[in-house]
Each structure stands twice: as structure tokens, then as C-alpha cells.
Write a structure and sequence with these properties.
The chain contains 3 helices and 7 strands. It is α+β, with helices and mostly antiparallel strands. It has a single domain, classed as START domain (Alpha-D-Glucose-1,6-Bisphosphate, Chain A, domain 4, 2-Layer Sandwich).
Length: 141
């Protein structure tokens, strides 16, 4: 299994950051590549299945994740049906308040058909960097 970690200091309160993070609809505005569309119930609660279409129009693939755990300022999504190059996906989302501010944290454990260096460099790093910019823009507006 491989690990990818990202954190973003947000100009918001912990409650504001959690409210934003706890609905998968936020993904549609945060992620431009690949494009993400949500289907059905997007709320974060234990037992919910989050259904996404991910891709570059007009080519989309299904991505289904179950939310097995929601705790205080954290939740986990586990990929049930994930697209290539992934074969497994477990993503912990957290909001932390630290002395210097509030942070949104993405801690991802994944398995891939491609080498970690390629997945991190060409998929995850650009995706989470773009999300970081979208999150900062959201809370700065």
C-alpha cells in the first residue's frame, strides 16, 4: 500500500471547514481535473455510499466510496469501485485546529497498478494542489 498526505491551512473556523468538507458536493467545485460529478446523496454519514463520475468530458467512469466512519471532525471514505490506475483507496479527511490556524488534512492510503512515483507526481500531487487552491479561493471569497 502507498501513502499520500496533504494539508491545507484554511482562513476559516474549524466549524466552517468541517461544514464545507462534510458534503461531497464540494468535490465538484474543488476538482477541475479530473472533472467530478456527484450522484445521489452526497452527505457524509456512516454507511452512506458516495457515488461519483470522474473523468474528462465526455468520458467518465464510476467511482463509488462507502463512508464507514464519521467522527469528531474526521471521516473516512473507502473506495468500493475505483477507476484505473487505482485498485484500492482509503482516504481519511480531518479538520484540525492548531495554535497557528485551522487545517484540512487528506491522508490517503492507496494501491495502484502504476508505480507510486507516477501516481503521486502525475495524478495525486496535481489534483490535491488544485483542490488546495480551490479551497483557499472558497474561504477567501
Amino acid at each position: 500500500m502507498n501513502r499520500f498526505y496533504s494539508e491545507t491551512k484554511v482562513p476559516a473556523t474549524k466549524d466552517q471547514a468541517w461544514f464545507f468538507l462534510s458534503d461531497a458536493k464540494a468535490l465538484t467545485g474543488m476538482t477541475t481535473f479530473p472533472k467530478v460529478q456527484t450522484i445521489g446523496d452526497t452527505r457524509t454519514y456512516a454507511g452512506n455510499t458516495i457515488q461519483l463520475k470522474v473523468g474528462v468530458p465526455p468520458f467518465f467512469v464510476k467511482w463509488d466510496s462507502i463512508i464507514p466512519m464519521v467522527g469528531k471532525d474526521a471521516f473516512v471514505d473507502v473506495g468500493v469501485k475505483v477507476p484505473f490506475p487505482f485498485s484500492a483507496w482509503c482516504h481519511t479527511h480531518r479538520v484540525e485546529e492548531r495554535p497557528d490556524g485551522v487545517y484540512m488534512i487528506d491522508d490517503l492510503i492507496y494501491k495502484s497498478y502504476l508505480p507510486k512515483v507516477l501516481v503521486d507526481l502525475f495524478i495525486l500531487k496535481p489534483m490535491f494542489q488544485q483542490r488546495k487552491q480551490a479551497i483557499l479561493h472558497h474561504f477567501s471569497s
